[in-house]
Amino acid sequence: MSTGIVVEESFCFKEETQLTVLKTSHFFPGDGFTVYDTKGKVIFRVDSYGPDSRLKDELVLMDVSGKYLLTVRRKRPSLHQRWNGFLGERCDGQKPIFSVRRSSIIGRSSMTVEVYGNPNEEYLIEGSFPQRCCTFYNTGSTNESKESVAKIRRKVDSSTNVVLGKDVFSHL
């Protein structure tokens, strides 16, 4: 099943591509990440914002120049810990293009990503992001199977086969 282009085609890869994600601050939890390609070129930045320094209510995905590509904002109140995604910099009255929510309100569960405007496009995220080990599945197709479309894993130094810390991870 093909998926629609959300931001722009230049950010779509024709084949499986490994990206490295590095936490930008070691002193403040959740402050942000920088995403690199295999040649060390910065592709994206992710920064978190919120009215309270402890509660990060908004994540912004930016290109290398700082242009807002997506804004993801926590919906309050929400039983399923829902986040809504907006194209570019979020404006008042703007409708979300997708939402992410916990699949169940009980215990630790998977996350469901619903893309608005395309009823056949839905994703499931299984695993643990804090442990840097999760898989993204396309579940929007009409058959019952789920297709793996991305994985997050802790990065392994290829020269020493040592698993790096949780602040450096790979996205496939």
Any overview of this molecule?
The chain has 172 residues and is mainly β. It contains no helices and 14 strands. A hairpin with a 4-residue loop joins strand 9 (122-128) and strand 10 (133-138). It starts with 18 loop residues before the first strand and ends with a strand.
Explain briefly what this protein structure is.
The protein is mainly β. The protein contains no helices and 14 strands.
Structure summary, number of beta strands: 14
> Gyration radius, to the nearest Å?
16 Å
Helix content: under 10%
The fraction of residues assigned to DSSP E strands is 35-45%
List the helices and strands and how they pair.
Layout: E1 19-23, E2 32-36, E3 42-49, E4 58-62, E5 68-74, E6 83-87, E7 98-102, E8 111-115, E9 122-128, E10 133-138, E11 147-154, E12 156-157, E13 162-163, E14 168-171
Antiparallel strand pairs: 1-2, 1-14, 2-3, 3-4, 4-5, 5-6, 6-7, 7-8, 8-9, 9-10, 10-11, 11-14, 12-13
